[in-house]
């Protein structure tokens, strides 16, 4: 399991190497990578409602992503960490979605920015979704060598279904879905049915860093936009 977690962390750092927030809070250093490996391992075992989906190498001669299976030799190229919908209750939605900020980060990380940013992220998430059950896409990362090849679409549609406006064959589509995104991911997630609901900025090295709150309404709540244009993925 540790080997696959290491690969996920490798993908994370490759995907977010030019991200201002990621570079400031999680600089690419051995201790920080180990923190990520340990955190993923702990959360996948103990976090309520957690679900991880991995994409492996594309089949030879095709552009079709394949989901990870028991073939250990396959190379993971993208992954998504979701939290499943949980019904309202004292130990359900609110407790599960809140990202913990108390644990100290390794040396070299910006602890103050981490705490301030995720406190605001938690607040905005709760303001957008309240306590109603919903899917939460907590993290999606694609290795740069496989970006713009449909990985984000595959990882989202695998969980939520791709039948956006008709009869939702996928029962998961009956729930709202929520995520946070950078402006670079806006067009990709809009094409997948998400709508911008909120956003905020934090200052990093004197420059604003924007984060968007996006919601994909449950299938019965959505309306066709009439916009069928295809856009390249940036996630």
Automatic annotation (TrEMBL):
Organism: Diplodia seriata
Name of protein: Putative gnat family
Residues covered by region (Disordered): 216-235
InterPro entries, sorted: Acyl_CoA_acyltransferase, GNAT_dom, Trichothecene_AcTrans
Pfam families in the cross-refs: Acetyltransf_7 (PF13508)
GO molecular function: acyltransferase activity, transferring groups other than amino-acyl groups
Boundaries of every N-acetyltransferase domain copy: 81-219
Record's compositionally biased regions (Basic and acidic residues): 220-235
SUPFAM superfamilies: Acyl-CoA N-acyltransferases (Nat) (SSF55729)
């Amino acid at each position: 399991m540790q080997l696959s977690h290491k690969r996920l962390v490798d993908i994370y750092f490759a995907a977010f190497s030019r991200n201002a927030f990621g570079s400031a809070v999680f600089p690419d250093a051995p201790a920080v990578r180990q923190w990520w490996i340990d955190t993923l391992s702990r959360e996948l075992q103990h976090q309520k409602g957690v679900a991880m989906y991995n994409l492996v190498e594309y089949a030879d001669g095709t552009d079709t992503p394949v989901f990870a299976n028991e073939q250990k030799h396959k190379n993971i190229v993208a992954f998504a960490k979701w939290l499943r919908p949980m019904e309202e209750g004292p130990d359900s939605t609110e407790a599960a979605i809140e990202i913990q900020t108390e644990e100290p980060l390794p040396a070299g990380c910006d602890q103050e920015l981490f705490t301030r940013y995720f406190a605001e992220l938690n607040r905005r998430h709760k303001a957008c979704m309240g306590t109603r059950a919903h899917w939460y896409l907590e993290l999606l990362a694609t290795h740069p060598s496989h970006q713009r090849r449909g990985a984000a679409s595959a990882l989202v549609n695998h969980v939520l279904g791709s039948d956006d406006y008709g009869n939702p064959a996928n029962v998961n589509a009956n729930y709202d879905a929520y995520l946070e995104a950078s402006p670079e991911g806006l067009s990709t997630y809009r094409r997948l049915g998400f709508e911008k609901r909120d956003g905020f900025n934090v200052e990093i090295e004197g420059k604003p860093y924007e984060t968007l709150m996006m919601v994909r309404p449950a299938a019965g709540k959505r309306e066709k936009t009439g916009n069928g244009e295809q856009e390249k993925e940036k996630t």
